[in-house]
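FAQ: What does the model actually see?

It sees only this:
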Amino acid sequence: MKVAIIGANGQLGSDICREFSKTNHKIIELLQDDIEVSSLQSVSKVMDAVRPDILINTAAYHQVDKCQENPVRAFEVNAIGARNLAILALKHNIYLIHISTDYVFDGLKKKPYIETDRPVPLNVYGNSKLSGELFIESIASRYVILRTCGLYGKNPCIDKGGLNFVDLMQKLAKERTEVRVVDHEVLTPTSTVELARQIVKISDSDLHGICHATAEGYCSWYEFAEEIFRVKNIKTTLNVAGANEFPVKVPRPFYSVLENKVLKTNKINTFKNWKEGLREYLS
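And it is asked to produce this:
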């Protein structure tokens, strides 16, 4: 089968390409210069020519602050882009795998969110991603929407300065005598390698609908940093930052843990505990 990957050179897309290269599928790598998801004309031209069996969309406008400042662009990419892909997926009977986010929730539940929980986004980014989900649900006939959380991977995330949280902590530890990290935000750090492996597994299944896809377990950002320091035997002092020490401009959920209920129900969950994924990354 032909598998087209939008954002093939990104943090997640590069690992998806790597994992699919271990299969018998033919990989079609689509970069930003190849396709503009916010343009139906561009999407139509590429999909009419490529005709993939599976289309994986990792493209997103995902810097939370920039989305808040540029809501039109956020909705163009995250909502209209998803709509355009859904239209072409329906036209060519393509199996669409679309990456979404934990930010569709407000974090007030205080226990892991399952796929049927009601989304309540707190910001433009979350709202634009939820709109993309709704477009896909209302248009496409064969699709999986994967909500994930706390991604980090080997390939630099250009939109976030080229450093993921794991690499940033190691960099700061070399430059400073003390590193301070917030302890009031709870998440599930998820390796892009693990998510890519899960996507390969999903592509071979009959899964349909919304699906949560994160590593198992959860931690605060401080606990995440603490585990990084422990695994790498970093001696730099790590302390908890004050609640208002790093003020945020945009509201975001303080609890965004997702439960992979659908994956487990279908007996295709491949994720390990987040600490195991971190150890693999750091090795």
